[in-house]
């Protein structure tokens, strides 16, 4: 559905994307994984025809550079953060983008229900929460039922709760014949949405793997640092070991390497055992990407 | 629950005109909902009514009327307000979209950049048309009410040519908008250009005419380069049938070119509309929207 | 002048020879008539050239037309006390050398009344025809280039004529040569070169006329003892056009006239000519002219008082080199009303407390460099004026001053009013424009679909989504 052939994009002399080849088949979900600055967003912008580049990109057989309008008509795009006419009402926004995609007003209005915005169409865009905005963006992306969805760090600006909601919404909507190309640095998203993960680093594709492999590769990436009363520490270590973690003691507390999907696991176990946790922090133990939003969670 | 068809129909793509129309309507609504439109319209209507009221009141007792202060005042008003309005409106539009991060999102839709540019141009033109019509229509109504006998045809010409001037300036403004990174820079540049077109070029022309003893035909052709002067001369040409009110240079133009003047003025205005817009289109298609 | 005289004499002779042809019906009636008879011209077209050589009345029935067939003169009057009335006289020749005229008169006391002249080169040509009465005629010139037209009315050494209630249009000039004591009253003239032109014609009274859209309204040259009052001079805008021009003219009173939309209201060149007399310009209204009054520095000895100067682009202009001298802008401590006067009247006597003087920088530039008028009406003009006011150092010397400016316009009973045109067209234009504006706004009002209805319909109708 998407064919990226030897695409290079330079800003001045620096190459943001270099000789990338990638193919997304119909119905396939592909995640672009990499740190900020790895070139994910740039590649996505090339796919959308927003930037000129070397090489070719075809979407549904349409060359993005020469038949961008047709190519984009096959793509539903959700950006990191929805930015447009703040005074517009939700219904108007949907109708406006629907009409841009050649839909009638009726076709356009139907798209609010699946994303759970039914009844919000009278609200102004600026009155929406971050999560609702992203759901609106998703609704707009789904207008006209496009065969390709392109998502660019869609959950980056959401809080943990909103993120989970949004990902489950995506899960419900995306398992189908729709192709999916998305940039992410969240293992749980990758795991639930992608069939294939493409790792990018400094503009190049460095590796490719199934999502499970990514989880195990990055499993030890995070370390939970727990501050506990000295007296409780041995018991805590025993409890955690019993639950499959491998805690270590250090000067002020316990370090527990945690898989991405179970970061809260040790906390829950210790709380249930009535061990009081004075404080905790999540550390990046390896040279894995710096996660701005991760630090907040 | 969503189920999706396995076979996707070939892409439905709007024609260029439909896309442009949709974007124009959106831009028009956006402009009319915005503060600048409201402020400018209020200012324009108020000043226009002021000019009309004062000129009608001053001589009402003598039953006099004429081209005089009313039309001259309105020409002056248009020369000051309309270019400022159009330049800033044009300069604000793309630059602020870029700044708000809206531009890449819009361009990720199945439209192309030329349609976006043209749509914004048409939408803002319509907004300016509304503003001008409301302003000058109000003036005409006041003048009629006060029993003034300004020629309605010349007022309609004034309105039409004001719109022409607005479109020229909008085009220049959009070129600025495409070039500028930030909306504030774009609007600042627009105001600077306004000052240049309104004051600097004319003062320069005055100084030049005195210093270099410019011939009247040279002076006339130099004036043709400034869309504001073109607007002024064209309005006078239509209102007065001759440019003799503009002295020897005006008389020269009327005598030499006569009816051809209209085409010269139209050509100058068309060039001021098409060239900046085309340049904006080319630059916009090359520059990153981010 | 002597040369001109000779030329005219020659052409007179030439014109006379055109009458050598056989007389028609009317011609025979005239030949058969006795002095004092009335010859009636019946309705219908009479293709004749007539000579009237005895005192009689030539009276047309309604519909009586004398047609010159585009050649020669049509009526030649050589006897005194002839009356021509009620005729339509049309289609003279177009020979400027022979000065083809509809009616040529070379005898005293002719009365030419209530005739219509159409398509004539010269209309009425009086040569040494004193005490004529020309009244109620309509004289329309030929559709020719201005250089090939003739004069609608010409008086040559024809004193004490009364010219009244006529309409002259599309001719060259109405001109008085060496004709004294003429009264020109209540005529209309439009689309001519000179609405009225006086050469060496003294003691002429011109009153209640309307002269509009001529190149020049009234031009006085080498004449004296003139009265010009209650005339309306409107939109006379030739390349060197004026409402009224005076050159080498003496002892004139210009009062209660209305000057609107002319290139210049009055143009004063070397008038008064002999400085023993004073020119009086009073109680006129100058409105919306490009220039109210132009003085050449040679014009000295005028008294300009009690006039209204209303929104002329330039109220007073002093052109050429030199300063305005020996010109008074007030009489009996009352000056003129200036629409740009900024003073006030404390003691409520109708006269402003400060004198009015014109110190406009841009105007000053215009007087020196008329080509800069091209930049009129531009904001840059205001900028220059503003700078001129703000910086005394570059403020020009005032070109004139009025010591007793009036704070209210003078509205004397004698001053004619402008015709009130209908405001309906303007109202229509206003409503139309407001309509367009409102229409565009209406286009922008979003169409509100009832949300519930829209959504439920969409649920059933959306393709691919169930």
Care to describe what's here?
Helices cover 32% and strands 27% of the residues of chain A. With 297 residues, chain A is of the alpha/beta class. Chain A is globular, with a radius of gyration of 22 Å. The C terminus of chain A is likely disordered. By secondary structure, chain B is mostly helical. Chain B is 81% helix and 0% strand. In chain B, helix 2 packs parallel to helix 5 and helix 6 packs antiparallel against helix 9. The radius of gyration of chain B is 22 Å and the shape is globular. The N terminus of chain B is likely disordered. With 466 residues, chain C is α/β, with parallel strands linked by helices. Chain C has a domain of 157 residues: Single-stranded right-handed beta-helix, Pectin lyase-like (Pectate Lyase C-like, 3 Solenoid). Chain C is built from 6 helices and 39 strands. The chains are: A alpha/beta (297), B mainly alpha (290), C alpha/beta (466). Chains in contact: A-B, A-C, B-C.
Give the tags.
heterotrimer, B: 290 residues, mainly alpha, 11 helices, globular, disordered N terminus, C: 466 residues, alpha/beta, Pectate Lyase C-like, 13-stranded parallel sheet, twelve-stranded parallel sheet, 6 helices, 16% helix, 32% strand, disordered C terminus
Please write out the topology.
The complex is a heterotrimer of chains A (297), B (290) and C (466).
Chain A: E1 2-11, E2 14-24, E3 29-33, H1 40-47, E4 54-59, E5 62-63, H2 68-73, E6 75-78, H3 90-100, H4 105-109, H5 130-142, E7 148-152, H6 160-174, E8 179-184, H7 187-193, E9 196-201, E10 204-209, H8 211-218, E11 222-227, H9 233-242, E12 248-249, E13 254-258, H10 265-272, E14 279-284, H11 292-296
Parallel strand pairs in A: 3-8, 3-9, 6-7, 7-8
Antiparallel strand pairs in A: 1-2, 1-4, 4-5, 9-10, 11-13, 11-14, 12-13
Helix pairs in contact in A: 5-6, 7-8
Chain B: H1 16-33, H2 35-59, H3 68-100, H4 102-107, H5 113-145, H6 152-179, H7 183-212, H8 216-224, H9 227-240, H10 247-257, H11 260-286
Chain C: H1 2-16, H2 25-32, E1 38-41, E2 44-46, E3 50-52, E4 57-60, E5 64-67, E6 75-77, E7 83-85, E8 88-90, E9 101-105, E10 111-113, E11 116-120, E12 122-127, E13 133-135, E14 138-141, E15 153-156, E16 162-164, E17 167-169, E18 173-177, E19 183-185, E20 188-190, E21 194-199, E22 205-207, E23 210-212, E24 216-221, E25 224-229, E26 232-234, E27 244-247, E28 250-255, E29 258-260, E30 264-269, E31 279-282, E32 285-287, E33 291-295, E34 302-305, E35 308-310, E36 314-318, E37 337-338, E38 356-357, H3 361-368, H4 379-390, E39 401-402, H5 424-444, H6 451-461
């Amino acid at each position: 559905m998407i064919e990226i052939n030897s695409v290079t994009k330079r800003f001045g002399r620096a190459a943001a994307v270099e000789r990338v080849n990638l193919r997304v088949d119909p119905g396939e979900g592909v995640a672009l994984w990499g740190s900020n600055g790895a070139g994910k967003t740039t590649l996505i912008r090339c796919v959308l025809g927003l930037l000129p580049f070397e090489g070719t990109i075809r979407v549904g057989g349409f060359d993005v550079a020469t038949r961008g309008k047709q190519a984009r008509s096959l793509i539903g795009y959700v950006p990191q953060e929805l930015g447009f006419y703040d005074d517009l009402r939700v219904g108007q926004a949907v109708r406006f983008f629907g009409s841009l995609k050649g839909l009638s007003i009726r076709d356009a209005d139907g798209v609010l229900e699946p994303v759970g915005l039914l009844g919000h169409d009278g609200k102004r865009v600026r009155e929406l929460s971050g999560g609702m905005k992203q759901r609106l963006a998703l609704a707009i992306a789904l207008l006209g039922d496009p065969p390709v969805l392109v998502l660019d760090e869609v959950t980056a600006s959401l809080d943990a709760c909103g993120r989970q909601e949004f990902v489950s919404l995506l899960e419900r909507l995306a398992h189908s014949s729709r192709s999916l190309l998305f940039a992410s640095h969240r293992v749980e998203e990758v795991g639930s949405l992608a069939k294939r993960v493409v790792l990018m680093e400094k503009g190049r594709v460095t590796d490719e793997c199934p999502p499970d492999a990514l989880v195990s590769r990055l499993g030890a990436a995070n370390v939970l640092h727990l501050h506990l009363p000295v007296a409780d520490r041995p018991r805590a270590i025993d409890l955690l070991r019993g639950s499959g973690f491998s805690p270590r003691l250090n000067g002020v507390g316990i370090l527990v390497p945690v898989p991405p999907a179970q970061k809260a696991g040790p906390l829950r176990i210790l709380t249930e055992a009535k061990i009081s946790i004075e404080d905790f922090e999540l550390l990046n133990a390896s040279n894995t990407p710096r996660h701005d939003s991760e630090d907040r969670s | 629950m969503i189920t999706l068809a396995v076979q996707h129909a070939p892409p439905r793509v709007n024609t260029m005109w439909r896309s442009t129309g949709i974007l124009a309507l959106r831009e028009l609504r956006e402009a009319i909902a915005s503060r600048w439109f409201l402020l400018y319209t209020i200012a324009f209507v108020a000043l226009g009514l002021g000019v009309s009221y004062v000129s009608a009141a001053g001589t009402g007792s003598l039953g006099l009327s004429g081209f005089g202060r009313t039309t001259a005042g309105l020409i002056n008003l248009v020369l000051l307000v309309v270019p400022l309005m159009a330049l800033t409106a044009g300069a604000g539009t793309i630059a602020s979209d870029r700044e708000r991060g809206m531009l890449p999102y819009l361009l990720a839709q199945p439209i192309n950049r030329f349609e976006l540019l043209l749509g914004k141009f048409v939408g803002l033109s319509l907004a300016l048309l509304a503003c001008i019509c409301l302003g000058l229509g109000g003036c005409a109504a006041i003048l009629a009410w006060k029993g003034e006998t300004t020629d309605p045809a010349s007022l309609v010409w004034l309105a039409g040519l004001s719109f022409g001037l607005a479109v020229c300036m909008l085009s220049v403004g959009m070129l600025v908008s495409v070039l500028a990174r930030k909306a504030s820079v774009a609007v600042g540049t627009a105001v600077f250009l306004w000052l240049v077109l309104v004051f600097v070029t004319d003062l320069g022309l005055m100084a030049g005419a005195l210093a270099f003893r410019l011939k009247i035909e040279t002076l006339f052709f130099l004036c043709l380069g400034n869309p504001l002067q073109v607007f002024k001369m064209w309005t006078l040409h239509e209102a007065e049938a001759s440019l003799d009110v503009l002295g020897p240079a005006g008389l020269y133009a009327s005598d030499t070119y006569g009816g051809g003047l209209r085409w010269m003025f139209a050509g100058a205005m068309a060039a001021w509309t098409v060239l900046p817009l085309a340049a904006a289109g080319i630059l916009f298609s090359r520059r990153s929207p981010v | 002048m002597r040369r001109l005289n000779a030329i005219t004499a020659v052409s007179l002779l030439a014109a006379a020879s055109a009458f050598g042809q056989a007389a028609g019906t009317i011609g025979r009636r005239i030949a058969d008539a006795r002095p004092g008879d009335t010859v009636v011209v019946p309705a219908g077209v009479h293709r004749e050239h007539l000579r009237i050589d005895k005192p009689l009345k030539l009276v047309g029935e309604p519909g009586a037309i004398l047609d010159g067939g585009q050649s020669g003169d049509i009526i030649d009057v050589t006897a005194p006390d002839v009356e021509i009335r009620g005729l339509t006289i049309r289609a003279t020749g177009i020979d400027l050398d022979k000065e083809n005229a509809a009616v040529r008169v070379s005898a005293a006391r002719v009365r030419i009344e209530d005739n219509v002249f159409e398509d004539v080169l010269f209309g009425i040509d009086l040569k040494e025809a004193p005490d004529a009465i020309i009244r109620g005629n309509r004289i329309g010139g030929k559709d020719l280039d201005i250089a090939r037209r003739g004069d609608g009315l010409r008086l040559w050494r024809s004193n004490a004529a009364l010219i009244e209630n006529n309409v002259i249009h599309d001719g060259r000039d109405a001109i008085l040569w060496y004709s004294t004591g003429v009264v020109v009253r209540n005529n209309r003239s439009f689309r001519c070169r000179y609405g009225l032109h006086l050469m060496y014609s003294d003691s002429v009274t011109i009153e209640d006329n309307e002269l509009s859209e001529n190149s020049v309204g009234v031009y006085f040259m080498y004449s004296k003892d003139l009265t010009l009052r209650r005339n309306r001079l409107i939109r006379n805008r030739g390349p060197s056009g004026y409402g009224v021009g005076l050159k080498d003219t003496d002892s004139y009173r210009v009062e209660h006239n209305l000057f609107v939309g002319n290139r210049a209201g009055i143009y004063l060149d070397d008038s008064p000519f002999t400085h023993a007399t004073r020119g009086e310009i009073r109680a006129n209204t100058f409105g919306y002219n490009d220039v109210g009054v132009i003085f050449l520095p040679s014009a000295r000895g005028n008294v300009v008082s009690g006039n209204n100067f209303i929104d002329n682009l330039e109220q007073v202009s002093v052109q050429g080199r030199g300063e305005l001298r020996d010109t008074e802008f007030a009489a009996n401590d009352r000056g003129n009303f200036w629409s740009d006067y900024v003073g006030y009247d404390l003691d409520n006597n109708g006269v402003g407390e400060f004198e009015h003087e014109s110190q406009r920088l841009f105007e000053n530039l215009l007087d020196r460099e008329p080509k800069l008028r091209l930049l009129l009406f531009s904001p840059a003009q205001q900028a220059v004026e503003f700078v001129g006011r703000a910086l005394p150092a570059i403020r020009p010397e005032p070109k004139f001053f009025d010591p007793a400016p009036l704070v209210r316009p003078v509205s004397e009973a004698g001053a004619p009013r402008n015709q009130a045109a209908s405001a309906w067209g303007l109202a229509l234009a206003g409503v139309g424009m407001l309509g367009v504006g409102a229409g565009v706004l209406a286009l922008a009002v979003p169409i509100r679909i009832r949300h519930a209805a829209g959504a439920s319909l969409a649920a059933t109708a959306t393709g691919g989504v169930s």
